[in-house]
Every structure is written in structure tokens, then in C-alpha cells.
Specification:
heterodimer, A: mainly beta, four-stranded antiparallel beta sheet, globular, B: mainly beta, six-stranded mixed beta sheet, 0% helix
């Protein structure tokens, strides 16, 4: 158990809908990262937050947004969902930027 | 172009054999970090090692060892005396520093199967 929690574990929704994925980092970790893992794209870095501030953006679509709250938990919002958004979404946390990341169990999103 | 290349898509070995997983990276930064992660069938990603670009010392941790060579931009991972529990997908990753944070690039992974 990495200490990073993600909810929900599974999510099934329809195209065009909006969902919110939630992540609680390990105790003491200030940095949170979001990743998307799909069969065709592999593991893609989406976005990084540190102590509530956005620090780096990767291949995150404009339909996706994220934030990190004062209690350090983070949410990833996915809107106008398409079939291709079906993937495993991981959250990870680390004490600081560029440190080793500890990954949560992931949220499996299925868009039908 | 791929920032991190793991040319071996799948490898099968018999238990107790040694196996090396290759990782080649590409960066123009002088300061960067390299990582290896393991993803067992359960799906969770497990951190194995982090290396910064200024530390080329090889590292050994039990049956695991890592060979970092800046001259060839490689960061290879060797499992000695493999065991069935080593069966997993292994990812190599590169982190490049930005002004405010870090960009992360993962390789496509090498699926290792250890046959009993």
C-alpha cells in the first residue's frame, strides 16, 4: 500500500458526460501528479501540482482540468467525455518535485 | 521522437535466470532524473529507483541492479536470479526540470514473464 488513495476505483459513464476523480496524497507529500494509462498511448503525464499550485503540464487535453486543494487532496475533472478517454487514471504523490513518486491504485474509467 | 525508449516489448525467462531490461533516454538537459517502476498484474505502479544525472554510480539492491551510463544515455535494469514474483511490466521514466516543476516521460514498458 503506497499510502495514496484514489476514488472511485471504477467509473462507467456515457460520452459527453463529465466526471471527477479524486486523489489523496501520502501524508506529508506536497506534490501531486496525474497520469493517464491507455493501451495505445501508454503512460502519459498529465499535470503536476505542488502545495496547491500548478507546476507542470504534460499531455493534458483542454477538456480536462485539475486542482489541488488546501488540504492537498487533488481532483481531476474530465468533461465532454469521448470513447478514447477510456483509460486507467493514476494519481501519484511525492514529498517535492522530481522525487520518487508513489502511485495510487488508479481509477478505471470506461466511457460508453 | 521518444524521450524514453524501451525497445524490449516482452521478455520471457526461466526462473533463476538473470535478465536485463534496457532503457535509452534522450534529453538536452544537464540536470534530469531517471526512474524505474514496476507494474505487477495487480496494476499498481511501484517505485524501484531514482537516479539524478550527476550520479553515475551503479546501484545494487538485493537481486536488482541498475547501470547508468551517460555516454550512451542508458539506464539499464538487471534482475539476478529471477523469480516468478518478478513477472510484471517495468517502466523506465525520465524527469526534466522546468522553471516551476518537472516534466515526466515514461517508456512504453517491458513486460517480463518469469516461467517457473
Amino acid at each position: 500500500d503506497s499510502g495514496v488513495t484514489q476514488t472511485p476505483k471504477h467509473l462507467i459513464t456515457a460520452t459527453g458526460q463529465r466526471v471527477t476523480l479524486r486523489c489523496s496524497p501520502r501524508s506529508g507529500d506536497l506534490s501531486v501528479y496525474w497520469y493517464q494509462q491507455s493501451l495505445d498511448q501508454g503512460l502519459q503525464f498529465l499535470i503536476q501540482y505542488y502545495n496547491g499550485e500548478e507546476r507542470a503540464k504534460g499531455n493534458i487535453l483542454e477538456r480536462f482540468s485539475a486542482q489541488q486543494f488546501p488540504d492537498l487532496h487533488s481532483e481531476l475533472n474530465l468533461s465532454s467525455l469521448e470513447l478514447g478517454d477510456s483509460a486507467l487514471y493514476f494519481c501519484a504523490s511525492s514529498p517535492d518535485v522530481a522525487y520518487e513518486q508513489y502511485f495510487g491504485p488508479g481509477t478505471r474509467l470506461t466511457v460508453t | 521522437a521518444q524521450k524514453v525508449t524501451q525497445a524490449q516489448t516482452e521478455i520471457s525467462v526461466v526462473e533463476k535466470e538473470d535478465v536485463t531490461l534496457d532503457c535509452v533516454y534522450e534529453t538536452r538537459d544537464t540536470t534530469y532524473y531517471l526512474f524505474w517502476y514496476k507494474q505487477p498484474p495487480s496494476g499498481e505502479l511501484v517505485f524501484l529507483i531514482r537516479r539524478n544525472s550527476f550520479d553515475e554510480q551503479n546501484e545494487i539492491s538485493g537481486r536488482y541492479s541498475w547501470n547508468f551510463q551517460k555516454s550512451t544515455s542508458s539506464f539499464n535494469f538487471t534482475i539476478t536470479a529471477s523469480q516468478v514474483v518478478d513477472s510484471a511490466v517495468y517502466f523506465c521514466a525520465l524527469s526534466e526540470a522546468l522553471l516551476t516543476g518537472n516534466q515526466f516521460y515514461f517508456g512504453t514498458g517491458t513486460s517480463l514473464t518469469v516461467i517457473p
